Amino acid sequence: MEIQLETQSYASVQADALVTYVFDKEGKFDGLLGEINRAMNGRLAALAASGELTAKPLETVLVHFPEAVAAQRLLLVGAGKPDKFAGASDLRKVAGTALRFLKPRGVKKIAFLTREGERGAAAAQAVVEGLITADFESDKYRSEKKNRAIDSVALLGFDGGSEVRAAIDRARVIGESVNFSRELINEPSNKLTPQILASKAEAMANEAGLGVEILDERKIAELKMGALLGVAQGSAEPPRVIVVRYQPQSVKPGGPVLGLVGKAVTFDTGGISIKPANNMEKMKYDMGGGATMLGAMRALAVLKPSIPVVAVVPATENMPGGRAQKPGDVQMAMSGKTIEVINTDAEGRLILADAVFYARKLGCTHLIDAATLTGAIEVALANVHVGAFGTPREYLDKFLESAKAAGEKMWPMPIDDEYEEMIKSNIADIRNTGSGKGGGASTGAWFIKEFVDDTPWVHLDIASTCWVDEGRPWLAKGPTGTAIRSIIDFAMKMKT
Among the four 60, 155, 203, 389, which has the fewest Cβ within 10 Å? Predict the structure, then answer.
């Protein structure tokens, strides 16, 4: 899809559809929209008076052959109350909603007209990100595609200049990297084994100019990653650890190194503690944390933060084979800690234990991990917020500032000392599930913290936000790519 700035007047641009957005101002049309309403002889005001045009958030009204406009259609997307419009994040949704509304209607060329107050670089970036991520479909393996392709989008009304053009380029990198992750998450497990995921990560890294190393099962055993190997031993597919490195041209000695650790269980049956059959097919997305970090690295290779960044992605299946670990088994992690396996379906924290410890061994001074870790986070936050844990609190707060800037909803979750007591074992150092009722997301986070020690660390439980069963107006159903924008923003703001 081609996206470009257009200096031509909105009225004269030849397009299949002209898109803009409408605020709820009790039927009042002012500024640019007032100009369009007058040119159309009050037609918009009449639609508002009839109740068809309400400007409710993301409601759409399509006008065919609008007067005084060269475009064949005028699409109006509701933006809600002006005082509740969240700037870039809502503008991203408006653009995405418009594209997804028009795609199945045979539209090939769109002209997107921004409104007053939303014409700078941040607005341009939001619109382009919204367009690109909205263009993703989950129908790769369908013989017949329902949605047609949009060929081009002209951006109208934006301030010209290098800042806006740079923002458009930046948005394309971020949007395409989010979609790269979504493509990985959407792959069925027979098409994305740990080895195949490693090959795809290696190809991405080579194309992006990143350093890459793939650890096979022999190297993993040499490093004594017993927690990861315990999960992997039930599968015929061997595990992999994917290490991707970004190195800036100049590095300050002793400066920070950001480690991005992502859980990549390419299929999770639950192991011997097997999951119910209902909806088990969705467990292909249990590698969403790994895909998140690979997508972030893809973008950072182009955006070039000032600090080194290292991604560590442990990849395995969790299967109930004859050699699978069993409840009651004890595994020794790379750190030397012993783990009593109470539930083999609490496997994500096991592979993350070795991965975060290995990231520290590689020199990472600050950590972020992302994982589809617990069903408990859905009980706590539904599919609205990512659960965000971290220590020290100041480090977590800085990350949450990036989440707010990126327009991604995250909520700080508790990780008090009392949760540590819940994962103490009678026969090993720790157990992989909490001993009490409730608090599953917090005990899962604390388990990972055991291997972080005093390293500044953020844990993102994306289990309920990584995938949506029903499409949203701006987003196809399936993988969402959540948290990638926040991680990118955070990495770009870290200083040497």
Answer: 203
Cα–Cα distance between 74 and 156 in angstroms, integer? 14
Q: In terms of Cα–Cα distance, which of 138, 136, 141, 264 is closest to 196? A: 264
**How far are the Cα atoms of 193, 216, 295, 398, 488 from residue 213, in angstroms, in the given order?**
17, 10, 17, 30, 22
- Cα atoms in the 13 Å half-sphere on the side-chain side of 485: 27
HEC secondary structure over 311-369: EEEEEEEECCCCCCCCCCCEEECCCCCEEECCCCCCCHHHHHHHHHHHHHHCCCCEEEE
This prediction has a pTM of: 0.96
- Judged by DSSP in three states, 149 sits in coil
Q: Give residue 81's pLDDT.
A: 92
Residue 450, token pair as written in the block: 């055991």
In this structure, what token pair is assigned to residue 296?
Answer: 């972030």
Are 319 and 274 in contact by the 8 Å Cβ rule? The answer is no
Reading phi first (left if > 0) and then psi (alpha if -120 to 50, else beta), residue 456 is in beta
> Secondary structure of 391-443 in the HEC alphabet?
ECHHHHHHHHHHHHHHCCCEEECCCCCHHHHCCECCCCCEECCCCCCCCHHHH
- Helices and strands counted in the chain (H then E): 15, 20
Q: List residues with catalytic annotation.
A: 275, 349
The amino acid at 417:
D
Beta bridge partners of 260: 311, 368
* Chain segment 122-146, per-residue pLDDT in tens: 999 999 999 999 999 999 999 887 7
Q: What is the amino acid identity at position 164?
A: V
- Condensed to tens digits (0 to 9), the pLDDT of residues 184-203 reads 999 999 999 999 999 999 99
CA–CA gap between residue 178 and residue 488 (Å, rounded): 11
The kind and range of the H/E element at 447 are helix 440-449
C-alpha–C-alpha distance, residues 322 and 232, integer Å: 12
Q: From CA 132, how far away is CA 153, in angstroms rounded? A: 10
Query: Are the beta carbons of 484 and 171 closer than 8 angstroms?
Result: no
Residue 310 has φ and ψ, to the nearest 5°, of -125, 125
Question: Could you tell me the domains of the chain?
Answer: 2-157 (3.40.220.10), 174-493 (3.40.630.10)
Residue whose C-alpha is closest to residue 478's, from 315, 298, 282: 282
Burial code (b: 16+ CB inside 10 Å, e: under 16) for 344-358 equals bbbbbbbbbbbbbbb
